[in-house]
Amino acid sequence: MEDRETVTTTTFDDHERVLWVGKAAAYRDSFASLCAHPAGPLLDAAAVGEGVRVLDVGTGTGTVAALACARAAKVTAVDAEPSMLEIARRRASDAETRQAVLPRLPFPDGCFDAVVANFVINHVGDPGAAVREMRRVVRPGGRLAVTIWPYPSPPAQQLWNTIFDAAGVQRPTDLPKVAPDKDFPRNRDGLTGLLDQAGLIDVRCELLTWTHRTHPDTWWAGPASGLGTPGTLLRRQNPATIARIKHHYDQHTATYRDADGQLGLPTAALLAAASVR
Question: Which of 76, 143, 232, 241 falls 20 to 30 Å from 1 in CA-CA distance?
Fold first, then answer.
């Protein structure tokens, strides 16, 4: 059992909290549809169905919570960011929603049948502590399922690096990173190992691939609103540099545009699931 008194947040966690303050609407209108794709497989992997007590950790704008409610599960959803919870409450009105910040969850041991976390491990400074805390609130025999973005990054995410490189943008050196002793390889073996080390059993991991369809203005809007690392980098540029980045954005996204002007961006995610002893 994790000693919860010794668990602390990191500078990476603090950076993530500031990064997402007030950004729920911008996220909903840009990147939320990208992150929504694995929601069904994630719930399937956690065996979430009618009557199942499920905790959706890092619910964001409530995509996974709403789908779990549609399955007649008994849903509790938490997020660190109040603006996300405001939207999630409207989207998943049958769910109980609470503010909570990993690696601490305000629930007793073993009170859920399942816990799911969709692209949450990417945003915590101590992934192992986060997984152990999620495991703590699942009953013996229950399920835990998580998704992350893999590394090397899929084309949809690599595209931003290509654009910044073409525009001659220097990368910042002052952004907090997950400490090496707390990080893990963002691949199948790394994610499987993370869940193994947390004391979970029967760990399975698979790569989900799909083509994300979105409008070019929508894909630009996320970073333009300051979302994620591309948004942090974009917000640091002067107007002339932003205009240059946008020029290269239009050039490099042209390859992915269909006859209707929509983008078709190949992407992927890792989905891992396991049981609690």
Answer: 76
